[in-house]
Records
---
Amino acid sequence: MTSLTDLVERAKSLHADNHGPSQIADELNLSTETVTWLLTQEKGGETPKDVHIDWTSVSCNADLLKDLSLMMLKYYLSGDGGQGGREAGGPDLVVGIALSGVPMATIIAVEHALRIAIYHPAKHSAGDARAGSLSGTFAPVAGRRCVIIDDVITSGKTMKEVVDYLRCHGADPVGICVLFDKRGISDVDGVPVSSLFRISRL
């Protein structure tokens, strides 16, 4: 996608396929507020201050996705990407955030012989009382040192939610690994953030 018109068309197409604003935001790596604007904009209205990241050239290619996923964790474990990588023992479980974090977490778990858990954010849950949850099909997190994997930090709200959830369920989140950080944050409630790329709006 190379233009605002393309983004509007893509957002409306996803909406027509019964995707909600939160799902569209995840698909397009935009904030929910930006997606709402794309779906309801009026001509001449002010454009929201957001950055669209299109990394489909990598996410659609399994070999490239594998390389990028392993580079992300290698950067974290080197200690350059966050203080958690320097701690003795490192993580013993990866938590992939649905949807985009899951394939990267799977690749990392396989390559490093780690256990894997899948987190479903509250914004994906149905009903009025929205709450995040871990998939019961994958590894339990209690007593585990967890590294959280996702593609993009947009507002940081989902990351805070995951960190809180893991701590409430007896886990020790030791790091957050993402490809792109749109906030430029170094930690979420004391958990170091390691990002390969930081996006800055000038």
---
Amino acid sequence: MNDQTGRVDLVNDKPADPSLNFPNYLSGLSHDIRTPLSAIIGFSDLLIEPRLSRTEQRSYCLMIARSSRKLLDLMSNLIDLAKMETANLELFFKPVFIKDLVEELKIEINEMCSLYEKKHLIINYNTPPDQSAFFNADKGRVFQVIRILMENSLRFTKEGSITLEIKQDTPDLTTIEIADTGCGIEKDILRILFEMFPGPEAPLGKKTKSRGMSLAVVKKLCDMMGIVIEVRSWVGAGTKFTLSVPRRAL
């Protein structure tokens, strides 16, 4: 749904529909592999130049690091998707203490802020006052989901803030929100946000970027853990992802 403020909402509580437009998928995947590889090779060659300034060296090294991370994330996502499609991805449910989870996320996000040169952004962390608060899930996969969502926020937010808020509304429900003040998501993109193979109705030039693959992983992991994911976006003003995590029995 959308309103006059430019807000677009999407609630996904059903498994993602893998509409198999495979040629478009392969074309986008080829682009996502070649682009970071070309950057790694190109900037590595430039580092050999003897007259580089320290500023240029730092800039080239950051570009190599960013491109390497993109390539690593892409391959990791491909492996995870393959495991999920063949029912070979195992989940290990146990108590996830919110305090510990957020402390680990802070370290990861600080590194990403440096990598993407986004140290000027304000990163907010709001957590329950109860230091022993927890929910039951696969900690590593919940960490992966939040990291992907926050990394997307970093990439698409030029100024302002990113907020991670975790709330326990009831003993049986934990809510995780990742909100940013970035560019927002257009309505036509929002419709296919979690699709691994966007169909022929996908807008030209926006079919299969690495963001789409990472969000396909997010959606499938949420489905496997019984987490409902909801997206609200205001074009030009920001996006909010909400994860509703049930406290399942172990």
---
Amino acid sequence: MSVKEDRIVESLLFSAGKPLSVEEMQETTGLSPKHVTDSIENLMQSYNIDRKDDTSLEIVKAGNKFIMQVKKTFTDKSMMVAKPEIRTDLLKTLALIAFHQPVKQSNLRHMIGERIYGDVDQLMSMHLVHSEPHGATEVLTTTRLFPEYFGIDSTKPEEIREFLAKKVIGHVVNQKQSESSEKEEPMTDEEVTEEEPPQTQMKPE
């Protein structure tokens, strides 16, 4: 394994800003899966062990993907400077996790389908969701950064749930109003009131 190949994978992880699978890195770099895997192992050894006291970055595994991220010790300051906007469908997934936490990822898959895996990867990369292995699945919870990210002056689950329900509905209503404006068709009161908070019924495994 050459240093050059390590640097190629390192630059890809650094610039991606989201978790990447070995297959995605292999397709982008043209390296073989084995070379990508070896490079990841070398980089994790370097960032997470050899130079762990000399860098604010780390490389971690998120499901079957890998991401270069700021260490939790430095997360609060860095994330608050430039926090990305969360799209509506991802916000709904986050709301479900906050509503039901701790919640099994397999239960959420029954509710919203296979996209849960990609959503969780993104929420983990934003440090809003924490995942712990639980048998064949993962147990998901929100992180300590979660209330600060949304400016919620509370750590009480019921208050966080109420805030997120309103925020999700607000996002959807604003989105519909924007679409209606483009079509020059005003939104009716019935359309607004039809919006409901995220589904909260869990299916047993």
---
Amino acid sequence: MADHLTEEEQIESIKRWWKENGTGIVSGVVLALAAYFGWQWWQGKARGDAEAASNVYQSFVEAVSANEGKPDNKQLTTAQSLARELKDDYAKRIYAAQASLRLAALAAEKNDLETAAKELQWVIDNTGDDALKYVATRRLAAVKAARGEEKEALALLSGKVPSEFAALYAETRGDILVQQGDKEAARKAYIEARTQLLPEQASAGQLLALKLESLGGAAEEESAKESKDAEDSQPVEQPAAESEKENDAQ
């Protein structure tokens, strides 16, 4: 009898526990399942979006690369339409920014600087890729300079940038300063660019040297300065007479 009562008490205890906690357990299980399937859905959607964006970008590249990179009006219209689709539907993906950079380059080649500036500004405002943002900013500065907006162009190039962009930014500042007629400041900018070249950017040194030479006397001045620096770094040798005096004193 005691065993029987004990079983009944256990059953009642389980019922009470389930009544108090069952709803929470069920809710927890439901939420866990919802989170799991939600994550699976999000992952699937992200993969689908990436694939769709890649396909649109591939079509864009085919259109914009037609005729050896010189698309006719129909092909350019197609490319522009595909770029709009990338911007509207996949603005944060790298494909949209790359499409805008490509359209900006085409517009600049046709001297359509207004369109080029708009495309580059879109990249700056929308891309999440820092490297592409630095590329777009430098190009926008060059476009603004070409439009006669040198002050705004130089402002875009001010401030610290990663080492891989430092030389390019300094060189572009030099180009703009030459345009303004400030040869001395331009020379300093080119020298700065040359000193900040990374090993993999060494080939750009030749062009910088030519730009310095075009300013007149720059190469000779730099060569003299480098020779002087080298001389200053050498240990100073005492004259023989002085050396002998020191030996006699000892």
